[in-house]
Amino acid sequence: MAFELPDLPYAHDALAANGMSQETLEYHHDLHHKAYVDNGNKLIAGTEWEGKSLEEIIVGTYDKGAVAQNGIFNNISQLWNHNQFWEMMGPGASAMPGELEKAIVESFGSVDEFKSQFSAAGAGQFGSGWAWLVKDTDGSLKVTKTENGVNPLCFGQTALLGCDVWEHSYYIDFRNKRPAYLANFLDKLVNWENVASRM
How many CA atoms lie within 13 A of 153 on its CB side? Predict the structure, then answer.
């Protein structure tokens, strides 16, 4: 069965007051995300990956030794990444649940230090990619960054929070000011209850 583009969990204009415009969501979800779905479905049709889960395809097609990943991986991983991304944000203020805050303070010293490291990872990712808060294989929390569509599944990690730093994610609203986009994402867009639920 082919993968489908999931509906946004909120209206296209729901994040506009918090810095992510309706136009960005129309381009990012309706065009970019849909392209990953459509291309991914075409590429896996008739292959051993048809009928497998997104996670199985990502882990199975990732090549840790490759400079550039293959087309199936690129599209399916970006499909998965964006499925998570929309869920990790939400309209309205979201307080950080105590369990998550405690884990972040234990791992980073403070919430502010976590935000600083996360923002630095996203701003420092050359070209396209993602910044992540992950639960590592040893149970600890870490900030990581990945190129292009690579994600924590490739390393056996659990993605708690991911921020898309491809230009299409922020250029309409922030032009080339990626650090400002990252600060706004952490302070105004993250659904911290969703992040906590992933632990």
Answer: 20
Q: How far apart are CA 199 and CA 96, in angstroms?
A: 13
Query: What's the rounded Cα separation, in Å, for the pair 166 and 179?
Result: 13
Contacts of 160 (CB under 8 A, 6+ apart): 132, 133, 134, 135, 141, 195, 198, 199
The pair phi, psi for residue 166, each rounded to 5°, is -65, 145
Pairing relationship of beta strands 158-164 and 141-147 according to DSSP bridges: unpaired
Q: Under 8 Å CB-to-CB from 69, ≥6 apart: which residues?
A: 61, 62, 63, 77, 148, 149, 150
Report the alpha-carbon distance of residue 14 to residue 99 in Å, rounded: 27
pTM of the model: 0.97
Kindly state the helix (H) or strand (E) to which residue 144 belongs, with its residue range. Answer: strand 141-147
pLDDT, tens digit, 9 for 90 and up, residues 97-145: 999 999 999 999 999 999 999 999 999 999 999 999 999 999 999 999 9
- For 135-144, the CB contacts below 8 A with 24+ separation are 135/160, 135/198, 135/199, 140/107, 141/103, 141/104, 141/106, 141/107, 141/108, 142/107, 143/108, 143/114, 143/117, 143/118
Return the SS3 of 164.
strand
